[in-house]
Amino acid sequence: MGSYSILIGLSLAVILSYLFDVVARATKVPSVLMLLLSGIALRQAADYFDFTLGIPKVILEIFGIIGLIMIVLEGALDLKISRDKAPLIRRSFLAAALMLVVQAVVIALILHFWLHVNFQSCLINAIPLAVISSAIAIPSVASLQGEKQEFIVYESTFSDILGIMFFNFALQENFAQGASVFTFGRDVVAVLVVAVLSTAALAFLLDRIRLHVKFFLILAFLILLYSVAKKLHLSSLVLVLAFGLAVNNADQFLKGRLGRWFRPERLAEEVHQLRSITAESAFLIRTFFFLLFGFSITLSGLLSPQLLLQGVLIVAALTAIRYVYLRYIARTDLIPELFIAPKGLITVLLFYSIPQKHLIGEVSENILFIVILLTGVLMMAGLLLSKEQPEIGEY
Predict the structure, then answer these.
(1) CB neighbour list of residue 321: distance below 8 Å, 6 or more residues apart
(2) Which of 52, 104, 226, 243 has fewest C-beta within 10 Å?
């Protein structure tokens, strides 16, 4: 394939993704689903014409990691912190934490009794299926207003972060022992310290750099810090969230002596441009990740009745647990919150991070795709129902 043919293909992919976003706003069909289905269609066309394109798993992982960073940063740059937001943040954090743990444990028990595999391996495979994907949820709720939108943005972001932390905890050799709790606590303290220091350093650079090219330098430092923290088995997504929240709420944090080192009014100007660049980058990375992931799926592997049954049972269990929490514990609205818990980029990334010794043959990429597809359809239904609902007050 020639260079110009590749450029034509890449350009068409970006144009197609933009059109999908336009269609998604009008129809509430998530653009991610359309990208996945387009990837599958391209795979079928490639197979028909005997065209082979091998996609190394590492390419998907790189796109996924950068996409996750950009999407979480984009979401954080849209959130304002104030005292009146504290109850909302607590509710979203509690919802993300409780549902993540309960859903992961329930799916792990299903896998344990169904497949007779040790519980630790089952839990490691279950956690990716329980994490809400902010990469899908955040762009999809742009049409919602007020606390409903903010709740979903906070919940999905917290779910990503807590999911990575829970995943790292489950991977420990001394899992379910007292020492593992100590190790986990130590890592949490470490990542919080690194988050504060790295946020201060990046905010200082954003405020002081005068060169024309600086935003991608900041993003490069952010990706570097994320990757180094990840190599140290820290929940590095906290760094991204902390940086985005800090620079977007500089007036809340930079008071007193800190105002001498940082200028909130100057940061506010820079954040506007950073937000625009981050959104454009997130769109681009998300486009290629989901197209490539769809292309990596074989349609014949999706037509197994047993595979479909497993996917339906997993999604049914996830939805039932979410219903119980929202209805009887949080006592909040069900529409659209019940339906907006999509799986996606973070699910794939965590699945690819599972060590070989913990892989379960029956839990494959095809299962991931079925769960991603079904939760995407549920999210579409929730957004459509929300559109038909009359406007209601805060919950």
Answers:
(1) 99, 102, 103, 106
(2) 52
pLDDT in tens, 8-39: 989 999 999 999 988 888 887 888 889 988 99
Name the domain count of the chain. Answer: 1
Asked, for residue 391, whether it belongs to a domain, the answer is no
Using the structure block, give the residue that is written with the tokens 């504290």. 86
Could you tell me the residue range of the domain that residue 181 belongs to? 3-385
Taking every pair of C-alpha atoms in the chain, what is the biggest distance, in angstroms? Answer: 67
CA distance 335 to 337: 5
Alpha helices for 57-118 (secondary structure H):
57-76, 86-115
pTM: 0.83
Spatial CB neighbours of 85, under 8 Å, sequence gap ≥ 6: 150
H or E element in which residue 227 lies: helix 215-231
- Residue 100 CB partners (closer than 8 Å, separation 6+): 127, 130, 131, 159, 162, 163, 166
The C-alpha angle with vertex 319 and arms to 314 and 321, in degrees rounded to 5, equals 100
**Position 28 in a domain:** yes
287 domain residue, yes or no: yes
